[in-house]
Amino acid sequence: MVVFDWAQEARAHQDWFLAGDEVHYNANGNDERAKRFADALATAFPQGIDMADVPMNAEVSSDGTRREG
Q: Hey, which residues does 68 pair with through a beta bridge?
């Protein structure tokens, strides 16, 4: 399984949430969430990779780092 730790990234950006809510994203938060999920997927599954070469115990981030467990 490949995991993206969205909670870790979102925790540092309270400005992505509706004021006083801390649960629901504002427009900027929704944009960032979509972008970072896409970046994490691109890191986990690079174009042209053979799926047999994808580690099933990895954690990825949207900044391109990948940690295999």
A: 58
* Lookup result for tokens 């047999």: 52
Tell me, what DSSP letter sits at residue 2?
E
The two tokens of residue 55 are 């580690």
Q: Report how far residue 7's alpha carbon sits from residue 47's, in angstroms, rounded to the nearest whole number.
A: 26
Share of the chain above pLDDT 70, in %: 84
Q: How far apart are CA 42 and CA 26, in angstroms?
A: 24
Give the residue numbers spanning the domain of 36: 2-68
Number of domains in the chain: 1
Angstrom distance (rounded) from CA 41 to CA 64: 10
3-15 average pLDDT score: 89
